[in-house]
Design goal:
It comes from Acropora cervicornis. This protein is of the alpha/beta class. The chain has twelve helices and 15 strands. The protein has helices at 3-15, 29-34, 48-57, 80-86, 110-120, 136-146, 239-244, 251-257, 272-275, 298-301, 318-323, 329-345, and strands at 35-37, 43-45, 63-65, 71-74, 94-98, 128-133, 155-160, 193-194, 202-207, 210-217, 223-230, 262-263, 269-270, 284-288, 306-308. It has a six-stranded mixed beta sheet, with no helix packed on it. The protein has a five-stranded mixed beta sheet with strand order 9-10-11-14-15, with no helix packed on it. A hairpin with a 5-residue loop joins strand 1 (35-37) and strand 2. Bound molecules: zinc ion.
């Protein structure tokens, strides 16, 4: 995720008595090593050695949820391909990609990764579904079109629409002009718009026993957190117990697996509890983008088993951190406490 390295870099800058802006602006590597983007928008020369410390440690990448039927990626920074190569995850296994927001360190790896997947994929591989804020479709189209990239697989981009500008510190919930690139890429299947429901939550997608929800996070641009919710998995059926009761393998096995009671040849009733193991409790994974306020996701994040949350700056820089739409470790602990308290209360 690269957030801890940001933290270390800030400490280094503090030693030099400078108040940094953690926002990295695009530029050539030379510029990025020798210059720094200051809060007032002016660029000033910075100690290249200090900047190199920041630059060398930084590795904007991604989070991947590995599943038997395909892997799901969350965000795709420019370091994602390098990290994937170091891991046991093959790019061709990706079936869904979720982007939290359109800042480059969460997105710039997507066009390149798409091309890599295209180089290695089978002809009949399933399409890739990509989810994210409005503007994501245009970004990918422009990148692929200008680089004349054909992918060899089909993809669709499903965009999350938000009508509340109060989550977005800049006040813009999406790019102003979406019309300049309305031509579909040859490998693109048109995605669907996803709107919030009455509880201000987005039901993003559902596959087998997993449902993905999203909620808005306060940041400089429209940003979402994703919650992957697993349904409870029933316990395993013990066929030896059913055989003992005189039930041969067949349709009655399916019936009891579906939670229904059945009647044995001796007339007695067999309930699922008697012949099935304990159900596996549902699990929940919460993966958030950059934010200075993640409170809107609390309701659906409650009882989470795993939470991925940034902590960009130290607590003593809290004021600046919130200005830039980021969190400190203290903000993160506040959220985690509320989730854990909820877990123990329930
Ligand atoms: Zn950001």
């Amino acid at each position: 995720m690269g957030t801890l390295t940001d933290h270390e870099a800030v400490k280094t800058f503090k030693l030099h008595g400078k108040k940094p802006n953690p926002c990295i602006t695009a530029g050539t590597p030379t510029l990025m090593k020798t210059r720094y983007h200051w809060r007032n928008g002016a660029r000033k020369t910075c100690d290249p050695i200090v900047w190199r410390t920041y630059w060398d440690l930084r590795g904007a990448s991604c989070t991947v949820l590995k599943r038997e039927s395909g892997c799901w990626m969350f965000d795709c920074g420019e370091g994602s391909q390098i990290q994937l190569k170091k891991s046991c995850i093959k790019p061709g296994k990706l079936t869904k990609i979720f982007i939290t927001h359109l800042h480059g360190d969460h997105l710039f790896g997507l066009p390149g990764l798409s091309c890599t997947i295209g180089l290695n994929c089978a002809e009949n591989r399933p399409p890739i579904e990509i989810f994210g804020p409005v503007g994501l479709r245009k970004y990918l189209r422009v990148c692929l079109e200008l680089s004349q990239s054909l992918l060899g697989f089909s993809y669709s981009v499903h965009e999350l629409y938000c009508s509340h500008s109060d989550f977005c510190q800049s006040g813009n919930t999406g790019p102003l002009d979406l019309s300049t690139t309305d031509r579909q890429h040859p490998n693109e299947t048109l995605g669907r718009p996803i709107f919030e429901n009455k509880d201000c939550l987005w039901q993003v997608c559902q596959e087998s026993n997993l449902t993905v929800f999203a909620a808005p996070l306060k940041h400089r641009t429209m940003c979402f957190g994703y919650v992957v919710q697993e349904k409870q998995i029933p316990g395993k059926l013990d066929p030896s117990l059913l055989k003992q009761k005189g039930i041969p393998p067949g349709p009655l096995y399916s019936k009891i697996k579906d939670g229904e009671s059945i009647i044995a040849p001796d007339g007695s009733q067999i309930t699922p509890n008697e012949v099935m193991g304990l159900p596996r409790q549902e699990r929940k994974i919460v993966i958030l983008g950059d934010t200075c306020d993640s409170s809107k996701i609390k309701t659906i994040a409650a009882d989470a088993d795993v939470v991925v949350h940034e902590a960009t700056l130290a607590d003593e820089l809290k004021e600046a951190c919130i200005d830039y739409g980021h969190s400190t470790p203290g903000n993160l602990i506040e959220l985690l406490k509320s989730l854990i308290i909820h877990k123990f209360d329930s």
